[in-house]
Amino acid sequence: MTSAATDADNPQTDDRFQTARTLFFVIGAQKSGTTWMSKFMHDHPQIAVPAWKETNYWNIAEGWADVDYRLVAHQSKRDSESPIYTRFREIFRRESRAKDKAVTRALAAARNPAAPHGEYADLLFSDQAKTAQAHGELCPQYALLKPETYREMSQLGPNVRFIFIMRDPVERFISGVRHTLRKSLGRENVTQDAISKGVVETLNAPKSLALRRSDYRLTITDLEQHVPQSHIAYFFYETFFDQNEVQRLCTFLGVDHVTADVGRQVHKGAGSEAKVTQADKARIAGHLSEVYPFMRERFGDRIPEKWHASEALIAEGARAAG
């Protein structure tokens, strides 16, 4: 599939992007509060987001065949076998028709990602969103995009903003391993031994996406190549659930501050789950040894306290690896 970046210099762009007061993309790391943020934005009267949180539009436009391949495969079946969404709903049986529409539009647009991205504009600027002050979407996978794609996204309109929400890299890695094991083994089989084995296998996997997702310096460096720092807001999962941080988010997007239910953290880990050993945490920290100093230098006192405890494990992890 043609890379999204090949059309970055094409002057033709859907007019709706140009007239949007604020166009934004939440590219936060997975398991870092983006589901909570999506709910908040859906409820905010001045913010418009698609019915479904993760369209994966820009990943698919880059040619990511593995960005939930089930969507692509079943979308193709739906097109060839039926004029309705029967096949599609076989996989997302519990989801709303609005989600079907959102994904269908995103996939249709990504098949032809050349400007003016009209189908994508349909997704962001629905009839219900005409009165909104800020239009955008949330997709954690966007943290893995190429710098050229960030450039194209930043050129869609006159005021494009990016929001990157991050979580302690070791904890984010562990959360990803747990999620994978739940899907493959079932929640009841995610034991301490299973987690330990999953950690080792994931760390040793060639070009591990789990490690890439925890290496925030790569996303930050790629993003800041083409986007002014004033148009990027960085948040931390551990300190985000606070009215002051929510107000900072609203100010950044140019919308009124709305009081949020900061006590409701979606997908917060269950306390009864099997614990991760200190040795496994140290092993992960050793693989992420360059991330913590970068983040500390970049954000200083804003780094949450929990991150310091994980950083302290780096030396232990290095000894274990040696």
Automatic annotation (TrEMBL):
Tell me the keywords, alphabetical order. Answer: Transferase
Q: Which GO MF term does the entry hold, naming one?
A: sulfotransferase activity
Which region is the signal sequence?
A: none
Question: Which superkingdom, per the lineage?
Answer: Bacteria
Family matches, as Pfam families: Sulfotransfer_3
Gene3D superfamilies the record matches: P-loop containing nucleotide triphosphate hydrolases
In its UniProt entry, what is this protein called? Sulfotransferase family protein
**Could you tell me which species this protein originates from?**
Yoonia sediminilitoris
Top-down, what is the taxonomic lineage of the species of origin?
A: Bacteria, Pseudomonadati, Pseudomonadota, Alphaproteobacteria, Rhodobacterales
